[in-house]
Design brief:
The complex is a heterodimer of chains A (about 290) and B (about 280). Chain A has about 290 residues and is an alpha/beta fold. In chain A, the strands form 2 sheets. A 6-stranded mixed β-sheet of chain A has the order 6-7-8-3-9-10, sandwiched between helices. In chain A, a hairpin with a 7-residue loop joins strand 1 and strand 2. Chain B is of the alpha/beta class and about 280 residues long. Chain B has 11 helices and 10 strands. In chain B, the strands form 2 sheets. In chain B, strands 6-7-8-3-9-10 form a 6-stranded mixed β-sheet, sandwiched between helices. Chain B has a 4-stranded antiparallel β-sheet with strand order 2-1-4-5, covered by helices on one side. In chain B, helix 4 crosses helix 5 and helix 5 packs parallel to helix 6. The longest helix of chain B has 18 residues. Chain B is globular. In chain B, about 50% of the residues are buried. The chains are: A alpha/beta (about 290), B alpha/beta (about 280). Chains A and B meet through helix 7, helix 11 and helix 12 of A and helix 6, helix 10 and helix 11 of B.
Chain lengths: ~290, ~280
């Protein structure tokens, strides 16, 4: 289910004195099976852009084509499209509304005229995919969940509709380190095992570097950079110029480079950084 | 060291409608010292916010005692005085900002203290200046970035001239620049104005800048000490659902690879210096 965006413009309060242009001539394509990180300062248009991918918003000018369907076509099956392109919001409290975890996750499948057995099957599968044990959590009240469990329940509710594309809008904000790690593992597995296309919006450079294969940087409603993750995070000066940062592991490597150490590339996670530094150290010992 | 907040045997229970009671704080004893920056950390649901909400009488003890400058938060007569001494900044600035103009928002607290007009103006000017927000004084908070909005929320608390500011995950929803601005301003207010600061956070790279840290788990305090000392206890920190700062993790991993780095590295600058000083 590829996404093709062409010359997309969008303004809030269009046609009023308060009109605010948030997207300017955005063109991009996302292919099946990609893992795309979207980063950018707050109010840069990340969320507005992503909400066009599942027709929560439709273009005011330009076009968005998802799986061959123009989202602005009045005859397009937008409900069907939204089942295939799932959107998980930043705040799970906006997404979860039922009494129990099981009821909440069942909501999507129930609206698709499926049998009870089929619905139960989909709920159980979705819970397994996010690491929530069915027997423990099916009957549990939503309010009794921790922050990390709520995020997982919200993701499961979207997965129960069997999406081919999953949009995750800053889903780790406010989580503790363990909850963050758990969610990242879930996301990585959905991509690797279920081959779901992932669009990961984040304020954390560390997470974007660890997870994404391709990174799109948005600034003031325009595409600022778009490329392979290592190519993007190499450009530290550009990223800093728009108020972003580079991941901490890359920061260490950059500082060591300034002091004369040589590295083959930039690391994307702790393990790579440790290997880079240890190798450079050993090579220096050999030289002597 | 002089104590500003003293917590003794504090227990707090949340009662839910269905009769499931949650023990949020279980016999907590701790102090906040005058002039320090104290980090309170721990997993979601460990009791951090419940504890901090006792510091300015948003919650009052179910059992045990909380004293602010010697005044009990349980006594309603003290509430106004305590809230003037201890200000609270929440995670989401949208829940805190009340006015459509920055300077009016900052004036809201002082106005409610019934101060003379000239004093209110002075305080608003001072708060704006302290946080480098002068350029935005006539703007609407909604036209600012999330980081700037959070600074306006801090300015609003600052204008009350509190002795202590509590920040409850103030950077959770901010972008990298916003995070940096809030952290730098928090450190500067502590250094220059001597404001006692309590920071609730999940970011270990923020904790490293604090004088002391407390680790909570299931309503109890499990560790207390200087970040430099506590972060050497990697196993225990991880068992409590937390992590080490990136620099400490890298140093630990490099030690396992045979690089003889000090065991108590906290910051990226220290790590880089130590690596360059290796024989």
């Amino acid at each position: 289910m590829p996404i093709a965006v062409k010359d997309l413009c969008f303004s809030y309060k269009e046609g009023t004195p308060f009109e605010k242009k948030v997207l300017h001539n955005i063109s991009l394509t996302i292919e099946d099976g990609e893992f795309v990180g979207i980063i950018g300062p707050t109010h840069s248009g990340k969320t507005t852009l992503a909400q066009h991918f599942n027709a929560l918003l439709t273009p005011q000018s330009g076009s968005v084509i998802v799986n061959g369907f123009l989202t602005s076509d009045p005859h397009a099956d937008l409900v069907g499209l939204r089942l295939k392109v799932g959107y998980v919001f930043q705040n799970p409290d906006y997404q979860l509304f039922a009494q129990t975890v099981g009821e909440d996750i069942a909501f999507g499948p129930q609206n698709q005229k499926l049998s009870k057995t089929e619905v139960k099957e989909l709920v159980a599968t979705a819970m397994a995919q996010v690491g929530l044990d069915y027997d423990t959590f099916n009957q549990r009240d939503i309010y009794a969940l921790s922050g990390g469990q709520k995020r997982r329940a919200a993701i499961a509710g979207v997965l129960a509709c069997k999406p081919e594309i999953l949009i995750l809008d800053d889903v780790t904000a406010g989580l503790d380190p363990r909850g963050r790690e758990e969610i990242m593992t879930v996301i990585r597995e959905l991509h690797q095992k279920q081959k779901i296309t992932i669009i990961f919006i984040s304020n954390s450079m560390d997470e974007a570097a660890e997870l994404a294969e391709r990174v799109i940087v948005i600034d003031q409603g325009r595409i600022f950079l778009d490329g392979a993750v290592r190519e993007i995070f190499k450009q530290s000066a550009q990223l800093r110029s728009i108020g972003l940062e580079i991941p901490e592991v890359i920061n260490v490597i950059e500082k060591l480079q300034k002091r004369g150490c040589l590295f083959p590339s930039i690391p994307l996670n702790l393990e790579e950084a440790i290997n880079y530094i240890a190798t450079a150290y050993r090579e220096r010992e050999v030289e002597r | 060291m002089q104590t500003i907040i003293e917590v003794t045997d504090l227990t707090y229970v949340y009662h839910s409608g269905s009769g499931n009671n949650v023990l949020a704080l279980n016999g907590v004893n701790m102090q906040v010292y005058r002039g320090e920056i104290l980090a309170i950390t721990g997993q979601n649901g460990s009791g951090k916010s419940t504890l901090a909400r006792h510091f300015n009488a948003l919650l009052t003890p179910k059992s045990g005692e909380v004293l602010v400058d010697g005044l009990s938060v349980a006594d309603k007569k003290n509430t106004a005085t305590i809230r003037r001494s201890v200000g609270m900044v929440f995670q989401n600035p949208d829940n805190q900002l009340v006015s459509s103009v920055v300077e009016e928002d900052i004036a809201f607290g002082p106005e409610n203290l019934g101060l003379p007009q000239a004093e209110i103006v002075d305080r608003v000017d001072w708060a704006l200046e302290s946080l480098n927000l002068e350029a935005y004084r006539h703007r609407s908070p909604n036209s600012l970035s999330e980081g700037q909005k959070q600074l306006v929320a801090i300015a609003g608390v600052l204008a009350m001239k509190p002795k202590c500011i509590i920040l409850d995950e103030p950077t959770a929803h901010l972008d990298p620049k916003g995070k940096r601005e809030v952290l730098e301003n928090m450190l500067r207010l502590n250094r220059e104005e001597g404001i006692t600061t309590v920071l609730l956070t999940h970011f270990m790279n923020e904790v490293v800048h604090c004088d002391r840290m407390i680790v909570m788990d299931q309503g109890e305090i499990k560790m207390t000490g200087a970040p430099r000392d506590l972060f050497t206890q990697a196993k225990q920190i991880k068992a409590l659902g937390l992590d080490l700062p990136a620099a400490s993790q890298l140093a630990h991993g490099l030690n396992l690879k045979g690089l003889a780095l000090p065991g108590n590295i906290l910051t990226i600058e220290e790590l880089v210096d130590s690596i360059c000083q290796l024989p």
